[in-house]
């Protein structure tokens, strides 16, 4: 992952902390989907984002941890296996 791409992802991840709504729209935003995305679409996008951000795939540990935390919360709230 290039430095500019990493910087953009970090800034995007930091901005999520200021979101008030904890609904599906927030999780959709985390993975770059519109707020109208379905639970299944968000789940699929989270899985792809987590795989891409994983350090073993050339991603960054901090970014990967943020996706993992978000995905864990998403799974608990929306009962995703």
UniProtKB/TrEMBL annotation:
One of its GO terms (biological process) is DNA replication. It comes from the Bacteria. Keywords: DNA replication, Stress response. Gene3D superfamilies: DnaJ domain. This is J domain-containing protein.
């Amino acid at each position: 992952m290039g430095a500019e791409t990493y910087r953009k992802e970090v800034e995007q991840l930091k901005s999520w902390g200021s979101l008030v709504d904890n609904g599906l729209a927030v999780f959709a935003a985390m993975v770059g989907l519109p707020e109208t995305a379905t639970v299944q679409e968000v789940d699929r996008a989270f899985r792809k984002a987590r795989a891409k951000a994983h350090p073993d795939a050339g991603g960054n540990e901090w970014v990967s941890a943020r996706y993992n935390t978000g995905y864990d919360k998403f799974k608990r709230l929306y009962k995703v296996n």
